[in-house]
Write a structure and sequence with these properties.
Helix content: 55-70%
Radius of gyration: 20 Å
InterPro entries: Chaperone_TCP-1 (IPR017998), Chaperonin_TCP-1_CS (IPR002194), GROEL-like_equatorial_sf (IPR027413), TCP-1-like_intermed_sf (IPR027410)
Number of domains: 2
Number of helices: 3
Largest sheet: none
Protein name: Chaperonin containing TCP1, subunit 6B (Zeta 2)
Keywords: ATP-binding, Chaperone, Nucleotide-binding
Order of helices and strands: HHH
GO molecular function: ATP binding; ATP hydrolysis activity; ATP-dependent protein folding chaperone; unfolded protein binding
Distance between the termini: 67 Å
GO cellular component, one term: chaperonin-containing T-complex
Length: 73
């Protein structure tokens, strides 16, 4: 641990750089309009949030209906 602390410090700069890169990648997804997607990490011992999956499915159906109606009218 001492050798690592001498090389990298307390990790503050490393964390700032990683967070900056994550934000940069998120900006790419936002610019590609991938904002309505659900990104999830399955954690052992925790159930999948099926309520959130159902809400996202309902939202998608609603958006599809709206698009179809606007194309007809």
């Amino acid at each position: 641990a001492t050798a690592q602390d001498d090389i990298t410090g307390d990790g503050t700069t490393s964390n700032v750089l990683i967070i900056g890169e994550l934000l940069k990648q998120a900006d790419l997804y936002i610019s590609e309009a991938v904002v309505d997607s659900v990104l999830a990490v399955r954690r052992p011992g925790y159930p999948i949030d099926l309520f959130m999956v159902e809400i996202m499915e309902m939202k998608h159906q609603s958006e599809t209906d709206t698009k179809e109606r606007s194309q007809v009218g």
